[in-house]
Amino acid sequence: MEVGIADISLNISNMTIIYIEDNMFNQFVFKEILDDYYTVKIFDSGEDFLKSYKYDPDSYDDSCLFVIDLNLGHLQMRGEDLLGHLNEIDCFKRAPKIAYTAYAYNQSEVEKIISQGFNICLPKPANKEQLLRVLKKFTS
To answer: What angle do CA 119, 11, 140 make, to 5 degrees?
Structure first.
């Protein structure tokens, strides 16, 4: 179920994928799949990413693409909350933001997620071909 690609046209050949995910196994699989194709930076939470950005903002620019798990644990910032923070940072306002979640189990849920401001909702689990196809739409 791949729906909701917003009208974004970025021609960035060397985009950095920032994956925000609290599950270590999912982090490992994601990095293994994409490491040969993209620079991948992984953060355990939205808070960790924002701390990293605040500490070294020059290491980030508008060539980032965000893949964000929506359910980041009960004590952490949710993916939707992180989306709001990213949209307040100038260099990330136009960056593609992909919701990557196991909670997109029907069209209504996918539309609800996209209406929150994500460019696309990619249901978990996604295989290598699905991930690469979605990412290529934003990186070519």
So the answer is: 80
Q: What is the dihedral of CA 79, 49, 40, 71, to 10 degrees?
A: -20
Using the structure block, give the residue that is written with the tokens 């050949």.
13
Q: Which two tokens stand for residue 77?
A: 């910032």
Q: How many CB atoms lie within 10 A of CB 140?
A: 10
CA geometry: angle 55, 97, 95, nearest 5 deg: 65
pTM of the complete model? 0.87
Q: Which two three-digit tokens encode residue 4? A: 């909701």
Indicate the average pLDDT of the chain: 86
Beta bridge partners of 67: 19, 98
The Cα–Cα gap between 66 and 68 comes to 6
